[in-house]
Amino acid sequence: MQEIKLTKEVVSSFIESQINVWDTAKNNFTALAGVKVKEFQIGKSHFKVQFNPARILSSAAKVDAKSLKERKCFLCSENRPAVQEGLAWGDYTVLINPFPIFPKHLTIPCNSHTLQKIEGRIEDMMNLANALQDFTLFYNGPKCGASAPDHMHFQAGNKGFMGMEEDVNAAEKEVVLQSENATLSMLKGLAHSCFLIQSSNVEEGAVLFNKLYAALDIPEGEIEPMLNILCWFENGTWNLVVFPRKKHRPSCYFAEGDDNILISPASVDMGGVFITPLEKDFEKISAADVKAILDEVCLSMDEASAIAAKLK
Predict the structure, then answer these.
(1) Burial, 117: exposed, middle or buried (Cβ in 10 Å; 0-12, 13-18, 19+)?
(2) pLDDT attached to residue 60
(3) Who has greater pLDDT, 55 or 200?
(4) CB 225 within 8 A of CB 232
(5) Quick one: which of 2, 46, 146, 305 has the fewest CB in 10 Å?
(6) Assign residue 208 a region: left if phi > 0, alpha if psi is -120 to 50, beta otherwise?
(7) Are 14 and 40 spatial neighbours (Cβ–Cβ below 8 Å)?
């Protein structure tokens, strides 16, 4: 596969051509136009809730070791549908996501079958964000929403779709670390704790990310800290929003009866778009439910402050 520059025109043409020939993708992208959406504001955070039935495969994905071993990896080239084509980019291939959340939704797997782990790859993410300037890149940790934790991949969706991209401007920023061209801050006043790295230099941004990454605890038996990451490039600056996590799925995911809400939070939810694949959950979910889920799966402000204190 020959590598080509990921211009706006090339990517748009690629998405359109895949939708035209792939019925599954066509049906699901067409259905996006009719998804139900409602909105909440929690503190300085803006959230949408999207009723998106096609996302049931991701929200309910079995990611335990036994289930992963028993299924073929759908991100490996030999297991993809024959109709699914890709655009070559370095060690990765840009694909359309046939179960979209965004009007333009990409999945970008590594060309080799290697574990989902961001260590050593944050510069790849930043460079992809620069190459795909109409998109926001995102990374789901293996126990933070990744439905293929056995295969390293990023995803990307239309820039401006998630409220977090604007919310960072309204948030109070407590500077934790600085270099000549990069700043790591803790954001305050939002619905959940998170860190923001803003950098005009890839290497300096990566250095600050690696320091934050090293300060996060790795749960016993896991290969990396629990986290979600958003990344976009705008006006010469990379924006990396890092959401440290302490839990994979909230208690409502496992609850019985009326207490059950099938929500498995990932980067898009952290970024301000909660995905509900079941209509009954979309109808009943409230701002209080969203806040309770975030409080359960994210670090508290005190816990985030303790991380910041370690870094100062």
Answers:
(1) middle
(2) 47
(3) 200
(4) no
(5) 2
(6) alpha
(7) no
How many residues are recorded in the chain? 312
CA distances, 78 to each of 75, 112, 113, 191 (Å):
9, 11, 11, 41
Residue 140 has pLDDT above 90, yes or no: yes
Query: Which of 240, 238, 244 lies closest to 213, judged by CA?
Result: 244
Tokens of 15: 């998405």
**Residues 276-285 as b or e (16 or more Cβ within 10 Å = b):** bbbeebbeeb
- The whole-number pLDDT of residue 64 equals 61
What is the residue-wise DSSP string for the chain? Answer: --B----HHHHHHHHHHHHHH-HHHHHHHHHHTT-EEEEEEETTEEEEEEE-GGGHHHHT---SHHHHHHS--TTSGGGS-TT---EEETTEEEEE-SS-SSSSEEEEEBSS------TT-HHHHHHHHHH-TTEEEEEE-TTTT-S-TTS-EEEEEETT-STHHHHHHHSEEEEEEE-SSEEEEEEESSSS-EEEEEESSHHHHHHHHHHHHHHSPPPTT-SS--EEEEEEEETTEEEEEEEEBS-SS-HHHH--GGG-------HHHHTTEEEESSHHHHHH--HHHHHHHHHHHBPPHHHHHHHHHHH-
Strands 45-51 and 273-276 turn out to be: parallel
Per the structure block, which two tokens stand in for 141?
A: 């940790």
Nearest in space to 105 (alpha carbons), one of 23, 56, 63, 162: 162
For the whole prediction, is pTM greater than 0.85?
yes
Between CA 274 and CA 47 the distance in angstroms is 7
What is the Cα–Cα distance from 299 to 158, expressed in whole angstroms? 27
231 pLDDT more than 50 = yes
Distance CA 236, CA 281 (A): 40
Kindly report the backbone phi and psi dihedral angles of residue 195, in degrees, each rounded to the nearest multiple of 5, phi listed first: -120, 150
* pLDDT (tens digit per residue) in 150-171: 999 999 999 999 999 999 998 9
